[in-house]
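Example record

The entry below shows one chain as it appears in the dataset: sequence first, then structure tokens.
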Amino acid sequence: MPHVNRGTRAVAVLTLLVVPWTVLLSGGYVTLVMPWGLFDPFAFHVTLLPDYLAATGSGPPPFLLSWPIGVVIYALTLASVAAESVNRGDPRVTAGLLVLVGVTQLTVSWGFFRRGGYVVVPLGTLVAWTIAWWFYWPDLRRIGTFPR
């Protein structure tokens, strides 16, 4: 595994702001689930996450609650990688949070897949786990161990 500096790790983690977390295809329509909202690239329409949550009234379907939970975990990931950049963070925390972000978006994808009628691509899961593996694999292996 190549040695990577903290700045490169931070840039990799920031890519999750622009990569669709879940790609939904249904009935000729495409919806990109982003950390900040829903994006229809053909109509060029954006629904921000707070607006979506407010519009659902009694709340989104249970599987979709993983989306805002993932956003909160991602915010913690950003804070963790920022702490790493000033020698105050533990990369094991960042690595574990990236894995959890991927799990939340896999839950979203699975929920749509089970509904039927959707082609679902859990791109955020793949990207978060790839970042965790590529940049944090030694740290992931050390989760649960304590420095001596």
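Notes for this example: Residues 7-140 form one domain. The radius of gyration is 16 Å.
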